[in-house]
Amino acid sequence: MNDDFVFVDELVPGIRWDAKYATWDNFTGKPVDGYLANRIVGTKALCAALENAQEKAGSLGFGLLLWDGYRPQRAVDCFVRWSQQPEDGRTKSRHYPNIDRTDMFEMGYVATKSGHSRGGTVDVTLYHLDTGELATMGGGHDLMDSLSHHGATGIEQAAARNRENLRSIMEDCGFSAYECEWWHYTLKDEPYPDTYFDFPIT
After folding, report:
1. Which of 182, 178, 46 is nearest to 111 (CA)?
2. What CA–CA distance (Å, rounded) separates 200 from 202?
3. How far is 197 from 202, CA to CA, in rounded Å?
4. Is-contact 152 144, C-beta < 8 A?
5. Is 45 a member of any domain?
6. Residue 126: inside a domain, yes or no?
7. Cβ contacts of residue 67 below 8 Å, gap of 6+?
8. Among residues 46, 59, 45, which one has the least CA distance to residue 169?
9. What is the DSSP code (8-state) at residue 99?
């Protein structure tokens, strides 16, 4: 692992995570190439910003839960291969109910070169500190649908408010939102803006 990359939980005490691509619970339906451990990795700069975001979230009664951070390029390549395979329907209803898997790239839900591979991007949500329950967001991680867009219509008021809370927290702490995915945030001043790393998470 590059010396500037660390396990996020080691620098941001108390942060929760569920590294979806290290599990069977993701849009490909199985663990993804390069994810050999259920841990979240990122740059030290990312961790510093997340520590600030976690503190700000705590003041509002929330904690942060991460689904993904650094993503090896080999994982992105795995997504491309998966998109070219025949549809088997196993994850379609949950993750891409209204599009074909081949359309994910053109529609901006998956990229052949991902900001995640630069170590400065996270997939994140909120949970309630008093109960530990995830905050309602009007749709889950990697729901490739217009419901996942910021400002989406058709989601309940509480979910819209929670999305606004998350966006405010993250933007105040140096992150930029991605309009197609309410959970996706990238450091504005990421340390490796032009480098796509490929070391595995072990």
Report:
1. 178
2. 6
3. 14
4. no
5. yes
6. yes
7. 17, 18, 19, 20, 123, 124, 125, 141, 183
8. 59
9. S
What are 95-132's pLDDT values in tens digits? Answer: 999 999 999 999 999 999 999 999 999 999 999 999 99
For the chain, the farthest-separated pair of C-alpha atoms sits apart, in whole angstroms, at: 47
Q: Are 166 and 42 in contact (CB under 8 A)?
A: no
Judged on CB neighbours under 10 Å (0-12, 13-18, 19+), 130 is: exposed
Token output for 153: 């219509």
* Tally of residues, the chain: 202
Domain of residue 126, residue span = 5-187
CATH classification at residue 131? 3.30.1380.10
- Count how many domains the chain has: 1
Q: Which residues pair with 56 in a beta bridge?
A: none
Asked if residues 139 and 180 have their Cβ atoms less than 8 Å apart, the reply is no
> Is position 79 within any domain?
yes
Tokens 């927290």 found at: 169
- Is residue 169 helix, strand or coil? helix
pTM (two decimals): 0.96
Domain contains 174 = yes
Task: Give the integer Cα–Cα distance in Å for 114 and 120.
Answer: 10
Q: Which residues are catalytic?
A: 181
Contact 74, 21 (CB under 8 A): no
User: Tell me: the pLDDT tens digits for 45-62?
Assistant: 999 999 999 999 999 999
Closest by CA to 16, choosing from 124, 177, 120, 119, is: 124
